[in-house]
C-alpha cells in the first residue's frame, strides 16, 4: 500500500491597508495616478528625507490584531530590511522583525469536519515597494514609485493548515474579517491581498515537519488552490522517488499550472535587519487598545445574530448577504431607506446574485447604490412600475447605477393608472378576442390569463396586473 | 572698519542701525572667499550670484520691518551634507557630485526665516566620516592657523570658514564630535545640541541615532542666537522634540554655585600636556568665578569608541544604500546588468573611508554577528548614558578637553585610521548619550595652534552650558583670529 502523506501549510498574507495616505508620508495611496505623481522626497528615498509613521496604519494593524485575538505588543519598533532593488528607493524596506505589533492570535475556520483553529504567529506593519516596468523596445526599465510606501500588514499564520480547502477557508475568513473592520478591500486580483504559501509534506503520523518550500505569485483563490495541490504532489513525487526536497522559494505560473524555483535557501540574502533609527519606538497604551476595541465595527457573527433578531428573512439569506461586508452594507442602508428588509434581501438574493454570476463578478464589485435600490423598491411598492419593468430597470441599474426614478420618467415606463384608458383598452381586447371571452364565460377560468397578457401588451407593459385582472373580470 | 572681524550679532546690529547693508556684508564675505579660498578650500560650492540677489531681498525685508531678528542679514555657510533647494549638495562625495536637492533642510529654512544669508556649502569629510576633512572628494580643507595642518572634521570646512572669516557663522553636524573637534582645532565655538533639538530633516544621514546639527560661531553669544534660530520641533522628524529654546537668555556671567565635574579618565594617557594644562587652567577660571569644580570617575570612556564605531557604521551602511546610481547621483558609464551597475557606481562613487565604514557596518549587522557586535554596542551605549545620568545627579556640567591634541599635520591621520578613531575619545560618548556639549577656545599651544575646552551638559541643559561658556569666555578675553595675523605679517 502506498504511503499516506500529510500536507502542512502556513501562510504569509500581505494586505494593503486602505488608508488615504502612505505609511511614512502624506502622499495619496489612490490607484491609477500617472507614474510618479503620488510621490514625495520620503517615498522616493531622497537624501535627507525622513519617515513619520501614519498613526492610522498603526490603529488598523492593532484592530486586525484584536479581531484575530492577538496579543498587542505595547512597545514595538520598526526595523530596516536591507536589500538592493530599484523598486525599493532607499534600498531598505521599513518593516518589523524583532518586535512586531501583534503576536499569538488565532482565527476559527469551518471545515468539512467541523471548526478548526488556525494560529496567527504574528502581524507586522511594513511599506510596499514601487513598480518596475520593463521597456523591451528601449531595453531599459522604468520605475513608478506611486505604490512605494503604501501601508501593508503581513499576517503570518502558524503551520496549522492541512489542505487547500483549509487554506481557502482561512483566507476567506481573514478577508471577511479585514473587510468587516474596514481596513482593506482585500482584492487578490488587484494585489491588495497577496498570499505566499509555505508548504511541506510528511508521512502521516510523523512528528517532524518536512522541508518546506515557499510559493509566490498567487493572484487568486483558484491559483492558490491549484498551487497547493500541485506542490503537494510535486513534493510527494520527489519523496517517492527517493529525492530530497530543497528549501527554496518557488514562483507559480498559473497559465502553465506549474511552479519553478526562484532561489534556494543557500542564495537567501542576509537582510541585516536592525531597528530603524529614524523612527521612535511605538508605545501603545492600554487606554488606546480599549478605545480601538470599542470603535471596532460589528463583525459578521454579531451581524448574523442581529439580523436574525431584527429582520424576518430566511437564515440562508442572512448567511449569503453577510458573506460580503459590501453586500451587507447595501442591504442595511437600503432597508433603512425603504423600510422593506424582505424586499431588499430579495433583490440581493435573486437578481443581484444572478447578475453577479452571469458577469463573473464578486459581491465587492456591486456598483448600484442603496439609495437607488431603495427607490426602485419604493416605486414598485407604490405600483408606479410593475415588477417586470422593475427587473428591467434593475438590470440597467446593476450596470450603471442609474437613478430608477429618472430612468423610468425618461423612458416613459410608468404604469398607467388611468382607469378610463385601461377600461377602453380592455374593451378593445375583449372585442378582438371573442373566442377567449367565450371560453372564460363558459367556465374556463384560465382563459383570463390570455386576456390579461393581451391587455398588458396593448399597454406596452405599463399597466398594473392586479388592476387589469379586476377590470377584466368586471367587464366580462 | 573691517566688518569681517565683527561677530554675527555685531554685524546684524550694525545692519539694523543702517551702518552697513546686507549687500556690503555679502560683498565683504565674497571678497574674503575670493582671496582666501585658494589657500584654505573651505567651500565646495559658493553661490555668489544667488547670495548677492538674496542680500537685496533681505535688506528690503529689514528695511520694511519684516525681518527684525538678531541674525537678519548675516552671511552664513552650510555644511554640504544639509540639503539646499536648487543648490548642489554633495556630502563631499563623488557619488552626489551632481545632486541638486528639491527641498531645503529644516535647519537651513529656519535660518533663512531668521534672515540669515547663505553664501555657500562647506567642505567636509565624505558623508561626515572622518576627523580631518581630508576624506572629501573635493580636496582637503586647510587649517587657517597653519596651512600644513588639518582643520579637523568632519565639519572642517565650516569651522575653517568661520576662523578664516569667509563667513560670519556656519552650520555643522556632529555624529561623534564633528562640530566640536574642528571648532577646537580652528579656535572657534561649536555646539552639539541635545539629540532631537534641531530637526534632522534634510540632513543627509550618517548615523541617524547620533547625528545632530549645530552652530559653529565666533563666540558664545552668536552660538546661542544661532541655536535659538535652528532649534525647532519638526513633525517631519520623528526624533525631533518640543522643548525650551530661549538659549540667548542664558548669556549671563555667573557660575556661582554651579557644580562642575572633571572626569579623571579624561586626563590620562594620550592627552597632550599642553592641552591638559590649558583645559585645567580654564577649569580654574571657572572655579575663580565661583563654580565648584571637582574631579570624579566617569569611566567607560574606553568602551565608547568601539561602541560608537559599531553603531555609527551599522546605521551608515544602511543609510548609504540609497546611493545606487538609480535615482540620482553618480552612475557608472559602463556596466553589465543591474548588479554590475550597483557595484561599479558605488565603487567609483564612494571614497576609501566611506567604503571602510560601510563594510564595518554591514559586518556588524550581518546574521551571526548582530548580537555580538551591534546589540552589544547598544548595551554599552545604554551603560554610558547611565554613567552620565549618575554624573549629572551630582554635577551641572562636565568639563574636559575636546581632543587629545591640537590639529595634526595634513596626511598624518589617514595613514593610521585606528589612531584617528581614538582621537574621538572625548567627544564620542556625548553623542552616544544624546547630550549637549560645547567647544570653546581656551588657549594656544607652543605650535601656535588653538586648544578647545569642552563643557558637557545633561539632556536639554544647553542653557547651563551656554552660561558657563559665556562666563569663561568673558574672563578669558578676546581670542585671536588666525587669518588677520597671517595676512598682516
Automatic annotation (TrEMBL), chain A:
It comes from the Bacteria. The lineage of its organism: Bacteria, Bacillati, Bacillota, Clostridia, Lachnospirales. The gene is gatB. Gene3D superfamilies: 1.10.10.410, GatB domain, N-terminal subdomain. Its EC number is 6.3.5.-. Keywords: ATP-binding, Ligase, Nucleotide-binding, Protein biosynthesis, Transferase. The keyword Nucleotide-binding applies. One of its GO terms (biological process) is translation. Heterotrimer of A, B and C subunits. Residues 329-476 form the Asn/Gln amidotransferase domain. Belongs to the GatB/GatE family. GatB subfamily. Allows the formation of correctly charged Asn-tRNA(Asn) or Gln-tRNA(Gln) through the transamidation of misacylated Asp-tRNA(Asn) or Glu-tRNA(Gln) in organisms which lack either or both of asparaginyl-tRNA or glutaminyl-tRNA synthetases. The reaction takes place in the presence of glutamine and ATP through an activated phospho-Asp-tRNA(Asn) or phospho-Glu-tRNA(Gln). This is Aspartyl/glutamyl-tRNA(Asn/Gln) amidotransferase subunit B. Transmembrane segments: none annotated.
UniProtKB/TrEMBL annotation, chain B:
GO terms for molecular function: ATP binding; glutaminyl-tRNA synthase (glutamine-hydrolyzing) activity; transferase activity. The keyword Repeat does not apply. Residues 135-157 are annotated as: Disordered. Residues 27-465 form the Amidase domain. It catalyses: L-glutamyl-tRNA(Gln) + L-glutamine + ATP + H2O = L-glutaminyl-tRNA(Gln) + L-glutamate + ADP + phosphate + H(+). GO terms for biological process: translation. It is an enzyme of class 6 (ligase). Its EC number is 6.3.5.7. SUPFAM superfamilies: Amidase signature (AS) enzymes. Pfam families: Amidase. NCBIfam families: gatA. Allows the formation of correctly charged Gln-tRNA(Gln) through the transamidation of misacylated Glu-tRNA(Gln) in organisms which lack glutaminyl-tRNA synthetase. The reaction takes place in the presence of glutamine and ATP through an activated gamma-phospho-Glu-tRNA(Gln). This is Glutamyl-tRNA(Gln) amidotransferase subunit A. It comes from Kineothrix alysoides. The lineage of its organism: Bacteria, Bacillati, Bacillota, Clostridia, Lachnospirales. The gene is gatA.
Amino acid at each position: 500500500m502506498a504511503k499516506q502523506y500529510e500536507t502542512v501549510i502556513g501562510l504569509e498574507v500581505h494586505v494593503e491597508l486602505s488608508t488615504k495616505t502612505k505609511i511614512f508620508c502624506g502622499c495619496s495611496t489612490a490607484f491609477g495616478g500617472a507614474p510618479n505623481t503620488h510621490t514625495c522626497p520620503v517615498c522616493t528615498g531622497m537624501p535627507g528625507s525622513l519617515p513619520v509613521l501614519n498613526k492610522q496604519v498603526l490603529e488598523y494593524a492593532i484592530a486586525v490584531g484584536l479581531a484575530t485575538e492577538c496579543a498587542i505588543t505595547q512597545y514595538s519598533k520598526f526595523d530596516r530590511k536591507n536589500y538592493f532593488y530599484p523598486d525599493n528607493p532607499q534600498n531598505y524596506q521599513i518593516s518589523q522583525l524583532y518586535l512586531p505589533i501583534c503576536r499569538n492570535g488565532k482565527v476559527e475556520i469551518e471545515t468539512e469536519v467541523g471548526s478548526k483553529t488556525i494560529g496567527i504567529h504574528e502581524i507586522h506593519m511594513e511599506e510596499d515597494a514601487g513598480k518596475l516596468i520593463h521597456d523591451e523596445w528601449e531595453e531599459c526599465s522604468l520605475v513608478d514609485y506611486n505604490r512605494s510606501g503604501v501601508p501593508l500588514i503581513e499576517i503570518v499564520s502558524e503551520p496549522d493548515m492541512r489542505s487547500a480547502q483549509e487554506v481557502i477557508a482561512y483566507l476567506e475568513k481573514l478577508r471577511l474579517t479585514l473587510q468587516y473592520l474596514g481596513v482593506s478591500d482585500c482584492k487578490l486580483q488587484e494585489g491588495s491581498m497577496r498570499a505566499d504559501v509555505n508548504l511541506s509534506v510528511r508521512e502521516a503520523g510523523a512528528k517532524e515537519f518536512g522541508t518546506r518550500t515557499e510559493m509566490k505569485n498567487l493572484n487568486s483563490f483558484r491559483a492558490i488552490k491549484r498551487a497547493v495541490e500541485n506542490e503537494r504532489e510535486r513534493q510527494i513525487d520527489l519523496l517517492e522517488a527517493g529525492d530530497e526536497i530543497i528549501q527554496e522559494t518557488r514562483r507559480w505560473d498559473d497559465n502553465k499550472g506549474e511552479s519553478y524555483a526562484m532561489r534556494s535557501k543557500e542564495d537567501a540574502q542576509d537582510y541585516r535587519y536592525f531597528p530603524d533609527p529614524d523612527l521612535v519606538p511605538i508605545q501603545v497604551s492600554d487606554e488606546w487598545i480599549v478605545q480601538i476595541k470599542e470603535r471596532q465595527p460589528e463583525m459578521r457573527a454579531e451581524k448574523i445574530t442581529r439580523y436574525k433578531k431584527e429582520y424576518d428573512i430566511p437564515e440562508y439569506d442572512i448567511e449569503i448577504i453577510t458573506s460580503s461586508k459590501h453586500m451587507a452594507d447595501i442591504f442595511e442602508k437600503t432597508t433603512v431607506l425603504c423600510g422593506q428588509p424582505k424586499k431588499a434581501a430579495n433583490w440581493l438574493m435573486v437578481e443581484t446574485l444572478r447578475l453577479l454570476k452571469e458577469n463573473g463578478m464578486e459581491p465587492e464589485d456591486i456598483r448600484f447604490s442603496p439609495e437607488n435600490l431603495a427607490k426602485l423598491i419604493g416605486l414598485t411598492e407604490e405600483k408606479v412600475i410593475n415588477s417586470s419593468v422593475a427587473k428591467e430597470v434593475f438590470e440597467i441599474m446593476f450596470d450603471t447605477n442609474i437613478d430608477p426614478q429618472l430612468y423610468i420618467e425618461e423612458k416613459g415606463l410608468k404604469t398607467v393608472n388611468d382607469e378610463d384608458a385601461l377600461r377602453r383598452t380592455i374593451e378593445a381586447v375583449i372585442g378582438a378576442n371573442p373566442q377567449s371571452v367565450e371560453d372564460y364565460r363558459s367556465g374556463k377560468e384560465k382563459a383570463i390569463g390570455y386576456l390579461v397578457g393581451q391587455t398588458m401588451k396593448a399597454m406596452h407593459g405599463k399597466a398594473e396586473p392586479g388592476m387589469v385582472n379586476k377590470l377584466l373580470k368586471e367587464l366580462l | 572698519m573691517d566688518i569681517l572681524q565683527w561677530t554675527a550679532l555685531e554685524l546684524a546690529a550694525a545692519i539694523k542701525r543702517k551702518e552697513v547693508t546686507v549687500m556690503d556684508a555679502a560683498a565683504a564675505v565674497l571678497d574674503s572667499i575670493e582671496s582666501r579660498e585658494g589657500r584654505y578650500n573651505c567651500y565646495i560650492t559658493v553661490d555668489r550670484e544667488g547670495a548677492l540677489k538674496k542680500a537685496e531681498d533681505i535688506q528690503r525685508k529689514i528695511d520694511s520691518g519684516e525681518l527684525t531678528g538678531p541674525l537678519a542679514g548675516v552671511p552664513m555657510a552650510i555644511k554640504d551634507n544639509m540639503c539646499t533647494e536648487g543648490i548642489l549638495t554633495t556630502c563631499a562625495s563623488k557619488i552626489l557630485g551632481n545632486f541638486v536637492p528639491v527641498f531645503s533642510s529644516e535647519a537651513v529654512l529656519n535660518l533663512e526665516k531668521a534672515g540669515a544669508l547663505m553664501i555657500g556649502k562647506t567642505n567636509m569629510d565624505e558623508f561626515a566620516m572622518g576627523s580631518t576633512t581630508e576624506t572629501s572628494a573635493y580636496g582637503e580643507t586647510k587649517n587657517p592657523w597653519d596651512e600644513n595642518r588639518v582643520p579637523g572634521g568632519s565639519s572642517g570646512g565650516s569651522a575653517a570658514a568661520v576662523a578664516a572669516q569667509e563667513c560670519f557663522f556656519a552650520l555643522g553636524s556632529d555624529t561623534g564630535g564633528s562640530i566640536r573637534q574642528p571648532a577646537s582645532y580652528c579656535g572657534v565655538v561649536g555646539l552639539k545640541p541635545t539629540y532631537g533639538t534641531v530637526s534632522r530633516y534634510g540632513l543627509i544621514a550618517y548615523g541617524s541615532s547620533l547625528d545632530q546639527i549645530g552652530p559653529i560661531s565666533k563666540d558664545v553669544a552668536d552660538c546661542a542666537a544661532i541655536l535659538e534660530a535652528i532649534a525647532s520641533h519638526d513633525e517631519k522628524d520623528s526624533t525631533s522634540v518640543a522643548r525650551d529654546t530661549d538659549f540667548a537668555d542664558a548669556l549671563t556671567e555667573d557660575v556661582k554655585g554651579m557644580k562642575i565635574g572633571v572626569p579623571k579618565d579624561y586626563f590620562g594617557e594620550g592627552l597632550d600636556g599642553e592641552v591638559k594644562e590649558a583645559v585645567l587652567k580654564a577649569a580654574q577660571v571657572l572655579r575663580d568665578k565661583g563654580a565648584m569644580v571637582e574631579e570624579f570617575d566617569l569611566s567607560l570612556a574606553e568602551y565608547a569608541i568601539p561602541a560608537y564605531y559599531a553603531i555609527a557604521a551599522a546605521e551608515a551602511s544602511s543609510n548609504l544604500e540609497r546611493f545606487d546610481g538609480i535615482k540620482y547621483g553618480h552612475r557608472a558609464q559602463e556596466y553589465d546588468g543591474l548588479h554590475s551597475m550597483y557595484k561599479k557606481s558605488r565603487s567609483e562613487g564612494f571614497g576609501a573611508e566611506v567604503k571602510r565604514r560601510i563594510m564595518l557596518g554591514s559586518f556588524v549587522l550581518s546574521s551571526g554577528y548582530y548580537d555580538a557586535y551591534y546589540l552589544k554596542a547598544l548595551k554599552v551605549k545604554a551603560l554610558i548614558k547611565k554613567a552620565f545620568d549618575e554624573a549629572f545627579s551630582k554635577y551641572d556640567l562636565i568639563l574636559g578637553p575636546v581632543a587629545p591634541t591640537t590639529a595634526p599635520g595634513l596626511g598624518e591621520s589617514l595613514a593610521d585610521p585606528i589612531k584617528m578613531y581614538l582621537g574621538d575619545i572625548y567627544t564620542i560618548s556625548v553623542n552616544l548619550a544624546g547630550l549637549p556639549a560645547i567647544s570653546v577656545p581656551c588657549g594656544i599651544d607652543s605650535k601656535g595652534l588653538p586648544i578647545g575646552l569642552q563643557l558637557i551638559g545633561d539632556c536639554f541643559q544647553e542653557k547651563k552650558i551656554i552660561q558657563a561658556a559665556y562666563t569663561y569666555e568673558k574672563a578669558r578675553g578676546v581670542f585671536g583670529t588666525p587669518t588677520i595675523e597671517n595676512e598682516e605679517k
